[in-house]
Structure formats: structure tokens, C-alpha cells
Amino acid sequence: MYGFSSPEAVQWVEIRADLARMAGDFLLATGLWMGACRVRLAFQGAAAPEVHAAAAGALYCWSQVRDRVSAVESGPELVALLGSLPALNPRHLQLAQARLDALRGPAQPRTVPT
User: Fold this and answer.
1) 54: exposed, middle or buried (C-beta count within 10 Å: 0-12, 13-18, 19+)?
2) What pLDDT, on the 0 to 100 scale, is given for residue 8?
3) pLDDT, tens only, 46-95
4) Is the pLDDT of residue 4 over 80?
């Protein structure tokens, strides 16, 4: 009756994403939001407010991922997803791309205050 792409299933994925965010597991939350966004995009279209909300949730959670390697690994998928939403606020894509570029750059040395 309810498949993985049913509205009910997507809502549960979004609930799981919020729970992961509240628990501080931003990488998991990012992945869940991206999955929900892709399913909503396929069935609702790029202009649907729920698609944009899921994309914004993914971006927020990804911006909280502190592990550089994990953020760099998941960043291209997020940037591609945001780029597939022409009606989305273009600042979202710009922010994601700028962070990904910065993360891909050389590691910043830590300085110890003297």
C-alpha cells in the first residue's frame, strides 16, 4: 500500500531527518533530507514548496557537518541537488558551492595562541 516513495514514507524520512538533526547527527540528517528531496522532486516537481523545504533542510544540516572528509564526500551530491532546483533561492547553491570549495582547499593550520 505504501511504497518508499509514498507521501507517508517521505514524511517519515523527514521526521527521521529532524530527529537526526536534534541528536546532532548532521551527516545522517543531510542524507535523509537529500533523499526526501529527491523523492519529492520526482513526484511533486521542482517548484513545490516541500521540495524547497527539504533542500533547505539538507543544506542547513550539511553546513553543520564538522568532519571535513564527510562534508567533502557528501557536498557534491548536495550541490548537484540544489542545482537541479531552478526556482530555489540561488543563494543556497552559492553557499553550498562556496563551502565545498573551501573544504576542498588546503587544510588550514591551527594556530596556538601565545
Assistant:
1) buried
2) 87
3) 999 999 999 999 999 999 999 999 999 999 999 999 999 988 899 999 99
4) no
Whole-angstrom distance, CA of residue 39 vs CA of residue 9: 10
What is the band of 21 on the pLDDT scale with cuts at 50, 70, 90?
very high
- Cα 85 to the center of its chain, rounded Å: 13
The secondary structure of the chain, three-state, reads: CCCCCCHHHHHHHHHHHHHHHHCCCHHHHHHHHHHHHHHHHHHHCCCCHHHHHHHHHHHHHHHCCCCHHHHHHHHHHHHHHHHCCCCCCHHHHHHHHHHHHHHHCCCCCCCCCC
Query: What is the number of other CB atoms lying within 10 angstroms of the CB of residue 2?
Result: 9
Q: How far apart are CA 89 and CA 74, in angstroms?
A: 21
What the block records as the C-alpha cell of 97 is 558551492
